[in-house]
Amino acid sequence: MDKDRIKGKAKDIAGRVQRQAGEWTGDEKSQVRGAAKQVEGKLQNTVGKVKDAIKPKRTEQEAAGRDPAEEHRPAPRRRSA
Fold first, then answer.
1. Spatial distance between the Cα atoms of 52 and 48, rounded to a whole number of angstroms
2. By the 8 A CB rule, do 17 and 61 touch?
3. Minimal CB count within 10 Å: which of 1, 2, 8, 39?
4. Which domain holds residue 15?
5. Is 76 part of any domain?
6. Quick check: is 81 in a domain?
C-alpha cells in the first residue's frame, strides 16, 4: 500500500471531523477548511491508488529485464538506401 493512500485517508478523516465540528458550532470557516482538507485527502488517496495499480506492471517488466520507460519511446527510423 502506497504512503499516499494512508496520508490521504488520514486527511480525509481529519477534514470530516473539522467540517462536522464547524457545523455543530456554526463556524463557517471551519466547515470550509474541513471540506477543503477532505478534498485534498481524497485526491492524495486517489494518487496512492494509481501508484499501487501501476506498481505491479512496473515490477513485471523489470523482472523480464525490460525497461518500462523504453516501451513508450518510438522505434528508431530506418533510412532507406
1. 6
2. no
3. 1
4. 3-68
5. no
6. no
pTM higher than 0.70, yes or no? no
Could you give the number of structural domains in the chain? 1
- Given a contact cutoff of 8 angstroms between Cβ atoms, the answer to whether 22 and 34 are in contact is yes
pLDDT at 57 (0 to 100) = 72
> Which of 53, 44, 56, 49 has the alpha carbon at shortest distance from 10?
44
Q: Does 7 fall in a domain? A: yes
Which amino acid does the sequence have at 12? D
Contact (Cβ atoms closer than 8 angstroms) between residue 14 and residue 21: no
Better pLDDT: 81 or 3: 3
**Grid coordinates standing for 32?**
470550509
Establish if 79 belongs to a structural domain.
no
The pLDDT value recorded for residue 42 is 95
